[in-house]
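Notes to self after the Tuesday call (sharing in case useful).
The group wants a holo model before anyone commits to mutagenesis around the pocket. I volunteered. Ligand is adenosine-5'-triphosphate. Logging inputs and output together so the record is complete.
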Amino acid sequence: MFLSIDGLSAGYGGTRVLEDVSFSLERGEIVSLIGPSGSGKSTVLRCLVGLVPPEAGRIALDGSAVDYTSRAAVRGVRDRLAIVFQQYNLFQNMTALDNVAIAPLKVKGWPKAEVMADAKRLLDTVGLGDKHGAYPDQLSGGQQQRVAIARALALKPDVLLLDEITSALDPELVTEVLDTIRGLAANGMTMLVVSHEMAFVREVSSRVLFMDRGRVIETGPPAELFDAPRTERARDFVTKILRH
Amino acid sequence: MFATLIAEAPRFFTYWNMVFLATAVGNTLVMAFAGCGLGLLFGLGLAVTRAERIVHVAPLRWLAILFVEVFRRIPVLVLLLFVFFTFQLLGFSLHALAVGTIAIVLRASSLFAENFRAGIESVHPNQWDAAEVMNLSPLQTLRLTVLPQAWPVILPPMTIGLVGMIKATSLASQISVLELTFAARQLNQRGFSALIAFGTILVIYFVISWGVARLGASVERRLVPQHRRA
Ligand SMILES: Nc1ncnc2c1ncn2[C@@H]1O[C@H](COP(=O)(O)OP(=O)(O)OP(=O)(O)O)[C@@H](O)[C@H]1O
Ligand SMILES: [Mg+2]
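Result:
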């Protein structure tokens, strides 16, 4: 297992919102996380990158457990896992290009010319070749989300965590992003994807996890989970989503 | 009124009186600039110390909060006397100008700390999250993205605070610092009319305050990009 999560529990200020969550990802695999609003999908991703401290359980990368109480260990994890947030979280005072280049320059200390060329190429890849100098508040939600994807890729992570990245995109742009994601998958990028776009999930993921009230209720290949859910709650959720 | 002023002017604007006033202007400026300069530095330090995303040691944050809450609530005059008698008790005989400057530093630090804090808190927490997951350090985050976004919130009240500190230096006349207000009172006691003595320092105070306000506005122009200005 490349990334494995075992019995993870976590919460905010005493309220448990994740209870005994377990799953794993192989290298190069794409796994999707679905479930109703508030079921804890974002919290799982926030735990993985050390924004929410795990209260119990074990998270292991490449077979070795990560000690989330150690700053150095968390830094190490963040070197390898990149997250794209539901609300993009772009730096509002920086242009699209600076958003993408800032961490490679200031954290990694990579050479400037290389970083800038790479940042431009990444923005071109996500279809923002003409928006290098635009500030986040001059971009649409979909455009901001694509800058955020480019920013995450700029750090050359091993695993990409995507939190509802298509929810803000115009339909014709979803395809574009899907192509980007497919390209990444072909290059062996491991991804954990939170999404409500059933077509998207079906297409890209090898396994789907259904979460409800902080627990993983059902796991399976997308065809199985969408077409023949075994649990009542998954069935309810899938019919609700498909009726959309 | 004008006639009295004009009649008195040649007797007032003598070389010695000008030297006397220049010394007073100098002392006012020393207190204002040293006080506010150090105040800005310590104010930023205090705001950083009490920021939860930067300092994870709670008692340190409490100390910073305590300092700010105490020193921004005490009247400046009481602060002056407090500094004066504290040093006296400790056996130091400090120059009155130093006492005045220290009092201004204490006040300015706590006031500017509040300006910085409000600015830092005005920036959405998700900016910290984004920086943190990319391994930017808290201080890098502050410098590269939080402060640049916070300047529009920090600078306008801070400029008002700076002008307020210049006005507050006049209270140092109570502990006999030869600054503008003290000088005017002395000149008045030496027989010059209150009109000319206080009128002159009024003009000087206005010029200094106006200069600081202009400085504040120009810093704001430089630090707040065009498209984000209110
Ligand atoms: N910062 C926070 N402080 C307190 N509670 C929180 C916080 N963030 C999330 N929660 C709570 O944790 C639970 C799980 O939230 P989470 O954001 O992980 O859900 P989600 O599955 O991502 O939902 P959505 O589909 O709406 O994004 C919810 O009950 C939510 O109210
Ligand atoms: Mg969410």
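Two things stood out.
The domain at 2-225 of chain B is CATH 1.10.3720.10 (MetI-like fold).
Chain B has a mean pLDDT of 94.
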